[in-house]
Amino acid sequence: MRYLVLLKGKPMNEPPPAALMEAIAALGVEATRSGALLDTAGLMPRAAGARLTLIGGELDITDGPFTEAKELVSYALWEVRGPDDAVAWTRRFLAAHQEHWPAWEGEADVVKVMGPEGIG
Amino acid sequence: MTTPPAGAEGARRAVEAVWRMEAGRLIAGLARLTGDLGLAEELAQDALVAALEHWPATGVPPNPGGWLMTTAKRRAIDLHRHRDMSERKLHLLADDRQPPSPADLAAASADDHVGDDLLRLIFTACHPALSTESRVALVLKCLAGLSTAEIARAFLVSEPTIAQRIVRAKKTLSARQIAFEMPRAGDIAARRGSVLEVVYLIFNEGYAATAGEDWMRPELCAEATRLGRVLVALMPADAEVGGLLALMELQASRLPARTDAEGNPVLLAEQDRRRWDRLLLRRGLAELDRVRALDAPAGPYVVQAEIAACHARATSVGETRWDQIAAWYAILGHLWPSPVVELNRAIAVGMADGPAAGLALLDELTGSGRLAGYPQLRAARAEMLTRLGRPADARTEYERAAALSKNDRERQLFFSRALAVPD
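Output (structure tokens, whole complex):
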């Protein structure tokens, strides 16, 4: 089963510590070699993006920046046996933040991607 | 505040997820320390039981792999003290009765040996002295971290049956004194073949379930594909290892289109190709590109991946390069002589050069009697006969195919095809 994990975090004033980046890279290599991680990448701050809306028949396009309490930080696409495995991997990424960047706060949403096994 | 899903149940699921993540490396590391795969698997199971006892109260430790390894090693020392271990070759075990220090945990999780250990684990679990079904069970248990119950469910056999296969495998490894080590250089190619065979067998059991009600079991395909990715990470220079991975990614990309809303099979020609999994398809093609760049002579798995890639690149049956597929099947027939390969070549020739050419090749096969019990040969003849405007003969062949099939869904498919032959 495939899961999309979207990581969001409190906007920080300093770049992530090198030790965190190193831990994330090592974890990424391990997860890829295990066959579970299909794709992942960091995301630029929303200032560089845009938002399209369709409300009441009106299609609108707004360029950034947007003020958000939490910025999207990264996405990861997992191919694992079920939600518990996606959670277990994601937990390790958050634990790396906890260890190497104590001031950081954030959240990760684990979302199932529709697949041949059907909706459910 | 949130609580984990359903308390103890949630904690158990969390432990099992960590287990699946760590089992391979844990068992491989323990097997290196003890020189005994069977013992390593038992020690790892004991550590899992300990985790199930402790973690629900303490939470999952920061380094779960290290915790499991330290616990398993301690268990090994206890066993050594309390049981006659004379036949077991326990060596290299550090005496660490004290609670694990952070340094212990760091050492236990050190990555130095992981790749080599996993390779030894794979080659030992797929040792030719073991029966194929034992190899499959051992790989899924030790490398993929599946429980006996999960393996039993996936293969539609009873749990004691799988447990017996694993016990038998361990006995054979021990009786034959098969060491936990890499094959000798001269044996690598043959032993590698045994590994790939096991992984592809797991994939195919999922892709074309040989028995039972379901036409396929996608979770087994996913398991085999993950194992394939592990193998490629361990043996990146081996073209056949990459060929198998590319083949599985490409075949798995068709899974979403292989059944209709009712779960009935949909054959390649009728599949809605927009439903193919684009991500797996791209991964398969990319892996095949990587393999081609290795510039190694094409082996059977690479050739099969090339054939799957011909289908993957075509937006419809009509646009498929059937001439290329027929040529690849001719190569495959030399590398891996098999009547099934001949059957597939005949089908490709039928598409490239017309049904009469295809039927001529099929008739040779039928005449040889080599695929007498194989429903797909009958179905292929039926297809050519339909296109040649011989509806009565076509219907008879579809009915023969249905009579030969052991899969309920497939039998239904052949019957409905017989009905759909135009007059």
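The beta strands of chain A are 2-9, 37-42, 50-55, 58-63, 71-79, 106-113.
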